[in-house]
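New to this. Please check this fold:
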Amino acid sequence: MSSALATQPEPAPAPKVVQQPRLTNTALLCGTCAILLLAPLAFGAVEPWSIFALEVCATLLLAAWAARQWTNGELIISDHPLYRPMAAFFLLVLVQGLVGVTAYRHVTYAQLLLYAAYGMLAFVVTQTLRRSSQFELIAMIFTGYGALVAAFAVVQGLSPNGKLYWIFNSEQGGSIYGPYVNHNHYAGLMEMLLPFPLVLAATHFSSGNRKIAVAGIAALMAGSVFLSGSRGGMGAFVAQMLLLGVLLIRKQKDSWKQPLLLGAFLAVVILFLVWIGGNEVTQRLMSIHSEAREEISGGVRLTIDRDGLRMFLKRPFLGWGLGTFPIVYPGFRSFYTNFFVNQAHNDYLQLLVETGVAGFGIAVWFLVLVFRNAASKLKNWTETASGALTAAALLGCVGILVHSFLDFNLQIPANAALFYVLCAIAAAAPLQESQRRRVLRRHSLTMQPGTETPPS
C-alpha cells in the first residue's frame, strides 16, 4: 500500500490565473476630468481642431465605459433625472435638421454633435461617480488645476504682450486673459472651479494647514476674476458668495463662526486685489455703473437683445435652428458695425432664438430638476461628501447662470462641457459612504462643542 502511494505521480500545479487590469470607475472619472480641464487650455476649445478633439475624446471615453461593461458581461445603466430633458433636447434639434426648420442644416448638425459630446461626458460621470472618496479626488483635482490657471492668468495679466500664452496671436483681437481670448470666458471657468476649494475650506474635509492652503487658492481664483475685468464675472461671484452665505447660516443657525470665516475670506480677496490690482481694479469697479447706464440707454448689447426678440417672434415655436444665430442675425441687425456679431451675449435669449419656446421649455425643465434634486442633498452638506460635492457643483452652476445674462459662456465648448457635467453631478443620487467614513463623521460631530452625543 505504501509502495503504491509512493509511485503515484504528483499532481500538476494549478495554472496561475493572471488577473487582467480592470478599468475602474475612478479611472474613467479621472479621464473625464482630464478632458474637461484640457479643453480650456486649448483656448476654450473654440477652434475646429479643438472641437473635433473634444468630440473624439468624449466618444473614446464612452467607448471605454462600454467596453468595461462588455468585459463584465452585463450592461448596467443607472438612471438619472437629467437623462429625459437631455434626450428631449436632442430629439428637438434632430427634428430641426430633419424637417428643415433650421436656417442652416450643416451648422445645426455640427452643434448636435457637440451637444452629444457634452451628453457623453455627463453620462460617464453619472455612471462612475459612486463613492464618497471620489469627492475629495475631484475637489483636489479642480483646486490644483484652478490654482495653476489662476496663477498663470495673473502673471500674464501683469506682463501682457497681446498674445495667448505670450506666443499665439489672436486673429480677431479680444481681451485676452489666461488661456481665453475673452476675459469673460476666463471668469466663467473660474466661477465653476472656485466653489471646490471654498467648500473644502468650509467643511471638515480639510483641516489645519490644508484648510489655509485651499482658502488661499480660493482667494487667488476669486481675485483673478476681478483682475480679469469681467463685469459679468464680478456679478456672478457676488451671487455665489450670497448663496454660500445663505447655505452656511441655514446649516448653522446658532453659530456665526462659518459666516465670519466667509467674511474673512472676502477680506483676503480684497487685500489681494489692492496689492496686485491697485487703481486698475478700482477704476474698473467704478466704471460698472456708468457702463451699465450706457447699456440701458442704448448700448450695443441691449440693441442685440431687441433684435433677438424680433428674431424670436418670427419663429417662436421651434426657432431658427441650433447654432444659427450668427447666420440669421445680419438680416435683423438694426445698427451699423464693421464687426461680426457671432453671439447674442445672452445665453437665454440665444437659446430662445435658436430653439424657440420648445427648447427654452426643455432648458427650464432641465434646471428645475437640477435645483430640486440638489436641494434634497444639502441638509447636512458640511458633514457629508455627497452634500459637499452637491454644494460645490451647484455654486458653480449658479455662477454661470447669472453670468449668462450678460455673456455667452455656454457657447464656449470648454465652459459648456464643464457646466453640464456640474449640473449632472448636482442632480445625481447621493454618494455611497463607507462604514468607516460614517463612523469617523459621527465621531467628528460628537467631538464638536455644543453637540449632543447621538444615541447608539
